Amino acid sequence: MKILYETAMSPLNLMPLYRVWHEVILVILIAYMNQTRMTDYTLAGLSESWVGSLTLNLLCYATVFVPGYFLIWYFKKSKYIERAGSGLVPRLITSCVYGQSYDKLATTDPSHTRSLPPEKTLSAKCMQLSFCFLGLQVSYLTWGVLQEKIMTKEYHNSEGSIGHFKDSQFLVFVNRILAFMLAAMYLTCSRQPRHTAPIYKYSYCSFSNIMSSWCQYEALKYVTFPTQVLAKASKVIPTMIMGKIIASKKYEYYEYVTAVLISIGMTLFLLGSTEAHGTTSSSTTMSGVIILVGYMSFDAFTSNWQGELFTQHKMSSVQMMCGVNLFSCLLTTTSLMQQGTFSLSLQFMLTYPAFFWDSLILSVCSATGQLFIYYTISVFGPVVFIIIMTIRQGLAILLSCFIYSHPVTLMGILGILLVFTAIFLRIYCSHRLKQVQQRKTLPDTTKV
Ligand SMILES: Nc1ncnc2c1ncn2[C@@H]1O[C@H](COP(=O)(O)OS(=O)(=O)O)[C@@H](OP(=O)(O)O)[C@H]1O
Asked: Which residues, in sequence order, are bridge partners of residue 164?
């Protein structure tokens, strides 16, 4: 049994294992088609229903995750770390599977024994928050405009042909590859804290991030505009619930109350200021509700998991950006290649040079936006980040009302007032709470 296990898991045998996995996928697909009486349909047909398209995507991602899972399991089971040498490959395997223990580093690396930075003053914190807020708004407002342009614009070339680009997964890939390259370049030229997290841990939030993007695009086909607005405007509530599940976080009452007020205010504003365009559906179906719940859960998981990684491993935001995008590139490339759409999108890029330039600017905005995302989560945590992103949706609508001279209704104005009151309340209560806590701890410190 031991010999069988060792032969199967030997690195030399990994290629056949990988091929076997492809065979397994084909068998599952055929079984799926048989079971659902879809034998006459092609894979393209399968991807037309959301369940089919989701199954296809998940199977493609599984070709990365399943071998990865078995490799990690094998290295841990065989206690690889105890016999790992000092070459490049052992170091790489150790970083991917185990990371470097923070305690171990503290004894060897002086940069890890330094004391914590002093607590920032209120005005310094306000400056930092305004920096994150402005950075996220500018990057993602531009990104939103460009994304809509790419997905709706007709592209022309010098030979007179016209084309529409429709593959959102390719856009996600283009955004991630540039972000990964920029982060990797920055890491090689700058001094960074020692990286302690096992690299595979980034794959969880990378997967949830890709899945939340997929759900977001897919949901548009199955839900009415008000349902979609309600889901997007109330993202802060699932984020807090997920924080309780993942990190056992405790929130104060004022945080729950202001989260609900922000959600109600944003819903009123978005419903009061926009018309129901952009959605192809005139009714909300069960499928739509399932996909929206998926969107909110994956989105809430992503930022909370990232927040937890920052807390546990103290990596820099660029290290996080590099790690997450590494897996996002791996997952999206695998899926695009296996579904045969990668070459089609590249072909589109070659045929329509204007599309190349639009995608490049889109990825630059996305990469800048990601820098701000990771910085905001590392300094202020996932809930503040989600509130800023929720406000972004409101600002995007306000901007379009301003550009296209749409009026903002009374309900919209009430919504804005409610959101700002809730934010003010949140800042005020958090400040008051800190003062009370400081007063409580003051007698203890004077005794010492
Ligand atoms: N936590 C975290 N980490 C990394 N990237 C993230 C995160 N949250 C949002 N995003 C990316 O930001 C893009 C906009 O996301 P959303 O449309 O969900 O944001 S929002 O609706 O404005 O709240 C969107 O980019 P694309 O995936 O390229 O569409 C999200 O993937």
From this structure: 154
Spatial separation of the C-alpha atoms in residues 179 and 441, rounded to whole Å: 44
Reply yes or no on whether the pLDDT at 438 is more than 60.
Answer: yes
Does the pLDDT of residue 14 top 60, yes or no? Answer: no
Element holding 155 (H helix, E strand): strand 154-156
- Give the tens place of pLDDT for each residue, 83-139: 777 778 888 888 888 887 644 444 445 444 445 566 677 788 889 999 999 999 999
Residue 261 Cα to ligand 1 middle (Å): 23
CA of 80 to the centre of ligand 1 (A): 37
For residue 370, the CA-to-ligand 1 centroid distance in Å is 8
Pocket of ligand 1 contains residue 426 by CB under 6 Å: no
C-alpha–C-alpha distance, residues 150 and 171, integer Å? 9
Closest residue by Cα to atom 14, ligand 1, is 140
Q: How far is the CA of 49 from the centre of ligand 1 (A)?
A: 24
Helices (H), 85-235: 88-97, 102-108, 122-152, 168-189, 202-219, 225-233
Q: Is the CB of 368 under 6 A from ligand 1?
A: no
Lookup: tokens for 146: 């460009």
H or E stretch including 307?
helix 286-313
Q: What is the ipTM of this complex?
A: 0.95
**Could you tell me what percent of the chain has a pLDDT over 70?**
80
Cα distance between residue 354 and residue 357, in whole Å:
5
- Cross-strand partners of 155: 163
Q: Which residues contact 270 (CB under 8 A, 6 or more apart)?
A: 229, 232, 233, 393, 394, 397, 415
Least confident of 114-128, 344-358, 382-396, 407-421: 114-128
393 lines ligand 1 (CB under 6 A): yes
Give the predicted TM-score (pTM) of the model: 0.81
Among 324, 389, 393, 398, the mutation site with the greatest number of ligand 1 atoms within 8 A of its Cβ is 389
The atom of ligand 1 lying closest to the CA of 392 is 22
Pocket perturbation via mutation, ligand 1, pick of 299, 371, 374 by most ligand atoms within 8 A of CB = 299
Which residue has better confidence, 377 or 92?
Answer: 377
Task: Please list, in sequence order, all residues whose beta carbon lies within 8 angstroms of the beta carbon of residue 79, skipping any fewer than 6 positions away.
Answer: none
**Phi, psi dihedral angles at 303 (to 5 degrees):** -70, -30
